[in-house]
Amino acid sequence: MLNWQRTILILIIVLLAMSIPRGVAQTNPQLTLALVGQSTEQYVIPAGQATTLKMEILNSARPDVYLLQGEAYLDPTLSGTWELAHSEEMGNFHLGYLQSAIWTFELTVPANIQAANVTNGTPQVNLLIKIIYQATNEPQHEEQGVFALGVPGATVQRPQGVIWYTLTGLLIVVCLVAAYLVTKRRRKQ
Fold this sequence. Notes:
The chain is α+β, with helices and mostly antiparallel strands.
């Protein structure tokens, strides 16, 4: 019985030892994305104009990575469909552990963009940034970040569902009040 327990214990230790190097070797590199500039709360880009943006890309994981492509997307109609606004190759730019790069690019915001809401008096939309990168001997990876943009001159779109819910709710209240008044009159008679 004692030999059997030792054999199981040795087998568990061997299996754990074999699995640890594989788990460490397969960690995915991760990038941290941050817009640099104007304000920590919101970046302001007037609708219908081109603006230079700066994106800091920090390699926050152990493996070195090579930046392949940077892409910026906007959803101008707020339909949930992201449209490519800018794409640029990064020429296999090398980033080691805790090194960063600044990607500077021009973003043209369409004049007819619709904003989701108003923050501090400025219409606001979202910008989706995708950075495609690769670590040595690994497949390509993609890191994404969504950033709020203040877009002066954009049309503010009110959610249509809110209007329909309001009208439907108002109609229900009117019907309930009318039914109450009719039943009250019938009881009096």
